[in-house]
Amino acid sequence: MLGFPPNTTAFSLFADLFRSTIALYLTMRKIPSFANDTKYIFIASIGNPEPSYAGTRHNVGHRVMDHITNNYWKDHVYKQGPFYLSTKYPNIVLFKSDSTFMNIQGRVIQKHFNQHPKGSQMLVLHDELERPLGKFQLRQAGTSSRGHNGLKSIDGFCKSYQKLGIGIGKPTSGSVSDYVLKKFDSQIEIEELDLKVIPKVIKKLEEVIEVNLQSQVQVNNLLP
Questions:
Q1: Is-catalytic flag, 58?
Q2: Which domain holds residue 179?
Q3: What is the average pLDDT value for the chain, to the nearest integer?
Q4: Which PANTHER family does the UniProt record give (predicted)?
Q5: Is 13 a member of any domain?
Q6: Nearest alpha-carbon partner for 67 in 129, 169, 103, 59
Q7: Confidence class of residue 167 from pLDDT cuts 50, 70 and 90?
Q8: Inside any domain, residue 30
């Protein structure tokens, strides 16, 4: 922001004003419609259709999204069409892609992402075999799909997106496909996810969102 470092009170006031202005605009709309000057972070969870596959390892991204909308951010997110928008974070759109199968997510994600202004970013929540249960990893745009069928499908339409993988570990026996389509083995695993991992994932998301919001406030205040 012109004339003020990012941690000053003045900067915080401008950030709050930006939030409230955009949030007011969005809440007055009856259908999904997005401000042309706002570059959104489109946060999408991918998995298989629910409720049929709810609770499976492959759908852990949807589990995170459910915790976001139903628990952690329930006081400031609201449904609008197929999306969730936020009065606290006017620079985000949440989308749970649970209407189709994991290996054909690309077309659905592209269709909904393309409704947003150019310059918007995408972040995908997904299960991650390469990380053990209890861990997660945020990876930047252009990184490998690591053989993940959902990410490979998205890569067919868009390669420039961030990936937030929630670790589910690898099977000690049997096939990977059987492993990811099964539910978590024990209450201990579920508690590890719900009470330890997901809070950390949401904190990381909030950090990403705040950095993006501050950068947009700075750009808007430099405009004539």
A1: yes
A2: 38-221
A3: 87
A4: PEPTIDYL-TRNA HYDROLASE
A5: no
A6: 59
A7: very high
A8: no
In this prediction, residues 69-86 reach a mean pLDDT of 97
Nearest CA-CA partner of 96 in 68, 119, 115: 68
Look at residue 135 and tell me if it is in a domain: yes
- Express each pLDDT in 57-77 by its tens digit: 999 999 999 999 999 999 999
Q: Please report which helix (H) or strand (E) contains residue 93, including its range.
A: strand 92-97
- Determine, yes or no, domain membership for 175: yes
Residues 142-171, mean pLDDT to the nearest whole number: 95
Token output for 39:
């570059």
Q: 185: which 2 tokens?
A: 């083995």
Total tally of structural domains belonging to the chain: 1
The CATH number of whichever domain residue 126 belongs to comes to 3.40.50.1470
3-state DSSP helix/strand/coil % of the chain, to nearest 5: 40, 20, 40
Global confidence as pTM: 0.82
At 95-117, the pLDDT tens digits run 999 999 999 999 999 999 999 88
* Residue of 58, 62, 116, 148 marked active site: 58
Q: Cα 204 vs. chain centroid, distance in angstroms?
A: 11
Q: How many Å apart are CA 74 and CA 2, to the nearest integer?
A: 34
Nearest residue to 152 via CA among 114, 105, 100, 120: 105
